């Protein structure tokens, strides 16, 4: 069990924005039967090749990660997939067993996810002085540390999640927020120190927790770690500067509308998004905590309203999904925590959302890393064209024309002859 209750707070609780109308149903695709969108993912039970231990054996080289899709460039006129990313901040396994539960949910509905691990969840309380947080005393953490059983359980879940194709990112360590030494006040060099320590706790949990007989994590964390979400979505400016120098490929610490992403410097900006709050005249961040904050002030609210609040979050996420799915096809980014706020109603909402969207035709529920891989494989001109579409806006002339300029040109008249034949890609 975690040694301390996780503290989670976010600077953006609600945005007073007019609710964007959902796009029409033109070009809608019928729902697929459950599982029909792709072959069911079968997790690898063990490494395919030899295991080569790294350092003290906390991590190891085990070969390429299983179950990774091969990113393909869109063909001219091809409709983009509808990507949905479910992610978890501060991922760890405690007595609630939510990490292990959502691994099963992911397998059931073919959803690959990103788990942002807090490094201190692999550091025992007895060794807390190994953590030297920027602008705070040694051994300080606003989310506490772990005990040996909690570390062992968390390692087991991380290992299994990776073999199932999921990504292991970072939520850093002490989760410091606010003006008094919070991450928003940290310099680039302080961020680099925090990143290095987060890696160190993952690479040395065996020694730190005296768990020599536990199997290693099956990856080299120096290569595995390519993305993050900062605590409270703070400190992004200097974090990006540090991340660009430490091998990161994306960041998801910003706030954006449901539009196609672009790069900020060297990193993909895969920000959290503003989504509808059904029955209210504003949008909020696509995260369980923000619905919790708006509904009951981040405190346990009236139990008679718990079911309604969960339904409100689920329906808001589904409305956000529909306006992308039938509109601009922008990736939908959703963030969560392994918490039972308001009786676990938000966990139910997320699970019902996964079930509803990841079984739809043309939908790919992927990790952030997989989304970044796909974005990197596309022509920059195609991505730029996609970014011209606003929230919920589908191409007026349809995808076949919008992403295939040649299809929009009138046929060339050949005197005494015939127009050129359509290529196989243009025939319907």
UniProtKB/TrEMBL annotation:
The lineage of its organism: Bacteria, Bacillati, Actinomycetota, Actinomycetes, Kitasatosporales. Residues 29-48 are annotated as: Disordered. Keywords: Signal. Transmembrane segments: none annotated. InterPro entries: CE4, Glyco_hydro/deAcase_b/a-brl. This is Lipoprotein. Residues 1-23 form the signal peptide. PROSITE patterns: PROKAR_LIPOPROTEIN.
